[in-house]
Amino acid sequence: MKRQGVVLMAMTIALGFMLGGCASKAELEEMKAREMEISAKADQAAQDAQLAKAAADEALMKANEAERRAEERERLADEKMRKAEMMFENSMKK
Predict the structure, then answer these.
(1) Which single residue of 9, 67, 81, 90 has CA 20 to 30 Å from 52?
(2) What's the Cα-to-Cα distance from 92 to each of 51, 83, 85, rounded to whole Å?
(3) Going residue by residue through the chain (94 aa), what tens digit of pLDDT does each one get?
């Protein structure tokens, strides 16, 4: 009887380890699925960030171009104003 008890106890322990292993395997698979989901979200976030940076770079380039054109127009307006003032002063001298 002692021998049967030891065998039964060993089988119970082995069964417990096997069931515990299955649960651990299921948990590992769940963790792996979560990791893949998180990785996919991170990849999407990185892609969104790249698109946002490209849009920001394009907007900055357009803003710089608009500023350059505005400065050029201001320079031309100042030049025309000086010419007009010179013409006025010359007409007043006569």
Answers:
(1) 67
(2) 61, 14, 10
(3) 566 766 667 777 766 666 665 557 787 788 889 999 999 999 999 999 999 999 999 999 999 999 999 999 999 999 999 999 999 988 888 6
The CA distances from residue 81 to 16, 30, 73, 88, in Å, are 95, 75, 12, 10
Residue position matching structure tokens 């900055």: 60
- Give the CB-side neighbour count of residue 89, counting CA atoms within 13 A: 6
Cα 72 to Cα 66: distance, rounded to the nearest angstrom: 10
Please count the residues of the chain: 94
